[in-house]
Amino acid sequence: MLQWVLAAGTPSTVARLATLHQRYGQLPWPQVVMPAIQAAQQGFAVTSCYRQWAPMRQSVLQQDATAARIFLRYGQVPPLSPLIRQPELAKTLGAIARDLKSFYQGWIAGAIADLMAQQGGKISQEDLPTYTPLWRSPICGTYYQSVAPTMYFKFVRCRPLFWGCCSCANAQSLATTSPYFHTP
Length: 184
Description:
Layout: H1 13-24, H2 29-42, E1 44-45, H3 48-53, H4 58-62, H5 65-71, E2 83-84, H6 87-98, H7 101-105, H8 107-119, E3 139-145, E4 152-157, H9 162-177, E5 181-182
Antiparallel strand pairs: 1-2, 3-4, 3-5
Helix pairs in contact: 2-6
């Protein structure tokens, strides 16, 4: 079983990007999505960086036939240069470009729910159409170096999800334990 199904929440990226586009976008939505579709169709070359990092997840990729087919060659990390193409992703992105609702209510939602059911995940097809992005104020912090007290560092992080809290905790820890960083 893949490791991610029990950790996955309702997929939010599509709805969040669509909401941002509705509020601030100037180009037509299909035009915005087109570069991602083209990248999935054309693929990317296996680089030395890919070859360095892929072995760390190779055993997980090997457990899923689709992931192994896309990202591995004969169950192994591919050699340098071959292209990794994702035609299924291009098809999915094409559907999203034509109709945003297809992700949360159409065949894509059905595929997500089916995969979750097969792998023991908790997301159902009923969960998907009810997702609505929330607008929240970001977590912000300011720190400065004692070596150069006029040099301030400001960070902005999403909230209230776990990673936003971790960013604050890490920055606060750095500020209180490092001889180079202090809160103003």
